[in-house]
Design a protein that fits this description.
- There is one protein chain.
- By secondary structure, this protein is mainly alpha-helical.
- It is about 60% helix and about 5% strand.
- Strands 1-2 form a two-stranded antiparallel sheet. A two-stranded parallel sheet has the order 3-4. The chain has a two-stranded antiparallel ribbon with strand order 5-6.
- Strand 3, helix 8 and strand 4 form a beta-alpha-beta unit.
- The radius of gyration is 30 Å and the shape is elongated.
- About 40% of the residues are buried.
């Protein structure tokens, strides 16, 4: 058992206690962040005269060597170490000798792990944002190609009014755009460096925390050392944002599952993103969409777990906070995997446009436009609503659509109907007349698509940073 804290104790930790207490099994994922933070700390210590330049160079060489060996598979992070900090420091001392024992000067594992988790989460925020952007590019491509692909719009899963596939997809584009905005907010709010906070009350060494923060690409140092080591708000925010992303994906998946059903037949999921049945040879199942929908609860669980863990903790650091990692790591990986697979499924999915249009025609989705037609002929809207309601009932009894009725049949219900009614309630007219901002009309949609393309071409990237003296 390799620990950093043996001096106070007179006997070894019980084996089961050690195993229960250890975090190396999951925090080994933070090896790169731990080494990057250590290099920045070493550079700052040398700048402040706490280490010599020779000690700095030896330590940096040792740390970069550990990172390279781990990534090349020459050095295995095994569970004889309590945590990733123990692993890095023990291996550094073994490689460089006495200078390695100075690595921990002016810091605690408390601010060290706070830094590692913040660096890791910051990276995950950026990679999640990149995957969302890729998904939105696919959505926008579908929108551009389908401004005249007519389909029913729904409320309560009942056919309501005609719309277009571009308009329907555009709703999800807006949802994912807000998701990206949340990620940007989280990144900006969390981008402050806790290193140098010590265990909870800072340190007597003359650290330059602003310099360390700059080396690591942060906006500056955190301003309260107790908060620095006990803050997990940023991670809760990120898990909340991930949960909302999964909620949006799940809603989209639900619709694809419905559209893929025999009853709807709006879409054809590519064979590469479908599976079959072991007993029913005719089946083609939307498993990816169903799994994404199912994994949403997994991500919600990570958020609720961390909220519950943090709700009763006094200041400052408590060991409970070790529970911030496993489920958070799982949630981050789950969301990114779901985004990759969902994007691939969406990119390869085909649309049965005639089926969509036929469905819109058969669902009385033009009833509102028929009422608007009567209003245009001078009928008060409430009276027009009642007339069209009776007309729909007549059509249901007859088993036909409104525009399948003869003009004589229409005029028996209202003498305000004229020959122009058929053009007024065609799918094309019903959609094209809706030209207000955000509506499905072709001109309105093309303007939104143009605006959305400009949005995707904007490049949000935090400032570049690189640690100096990585030799």
């Amino acid at each position: 058992m390799a620990t950093l804290w043996g001096g106070r104790f007179t006997k070894d930790t019980d084996g089961q206690v050690y195993a229960f207490n250890a975090s190396i099994g999951f925090d080994k994922k933070l090896y790169r962040q731990d080494i990057e933070g250590s290099i920045a700390h070493v550079v700052m210590l040398a700048k402040q005269g706490i280490l010599t330049s020779k000690e700095r160079d030896v330590l940096i060489k040792g740390l970069t060597g550990i990172r390279e060996d781990v990534e090349a598979g020459r050095l295995v992070i095994d569970e004889k170490y309590e945590d990733i900090h123990s692993f890095v420091e023990a291996n550094l001392i073994e490689r460089v000798g006495e200078p390695g024992k100075k690595l921990h000067t002016g810091r605690s594992r408390n601010d060290q792990v706070a830094l590692d988790m913040r660096l890791y989460t910051r990276g995950q925020v950026l990679s999640t944002d990149s995957l969302l952007k890729e998904l939105m590019c696919v959505i926008l491509d579908v929108m551009e190609a389908n401004v005249e692909t007519y389909m029913p719009g729904f409320t309560h899963l009942q056919k309501a009014q005609p719309t277009t596939l571009a308009h329907h997809y555009g709703a999800y584009f807006e949802m994912f755009k807000r998701d990206r905005q949340r990620l940007r907010d989280i990144h900006d709010r969390m981008n402050y460096c806790p290193l140098g906070a010590g265990a909870l009350a800072g340190t007597t060494y003359p650290l330059d925390r602003g310099y360390t923060a700059s080396l690591l690409g942060f906006e500056g140092p955190t301003l309260n050392s107790m908060d620095s080591v006990s803050d997990r708000d940023y991670l809760i925010e990120f898990l909340s944002a991930l949960s909302i992303i999964m909620m949006h994906l799940s809603r989209f998946c639900e619709e694809i599952i419905i559209w893929n059903s025999n009853e709807y037949q709006f879409v054809e999921i590519d064979d590469a993103y479908s599976t079959g049945s072991s007993i029913m040879p005719q089946k083609k199942n939307p498993d990816i969409a169903e799994l994404v929908r199912g994994k949403t609860g997994r991500v919600y669980g990570a958020l609720m777990s961390l909220l519950t863990t943090m709700k009763g903790l006094p200041l400052a650091y408590n060991k409970d906070m070790q529970e911030d990692k496993e489920m958070a790591f799982d949630a981050m990986e789950t969301v990114q995997n779901c985004l990759v697979l969902f994007t691939g499924m969406l990119r390869t999915m085909g649309f049965k446009r005639e089926r969509m249009a036929d469905s819109a025609m058969k669902g009385f989705t033009n009833a509102t436009d028929a009422a608007d037609y009567l209003v245009g002929k001078g009928v008060p809207f409430r009276d027009a609503h009642g007339i069209i309601g009776r007309l729909v009932l007549y059509c249901i009894d007859k088993g036909c659509a409104i525009d399948a009725l003869s003009l004589e049949e229409l005029q028996e219900i209202s003498d305000k109907f004229g020959p122009d009614i058929y053009d007024a309630i065609s799918l094309k007219s019903c959609v094209e007349k809706r030209l207000t901002v955000g509506a499905p009309g072709k001109e309105a949609m093309q303007e939104v698509i143009r605006f959305s393309r400009e949005y995707l071409e904007e490049d949000w990237q935090p400032r570049d940073w690189q640690l100096p003296n990585e030799k």
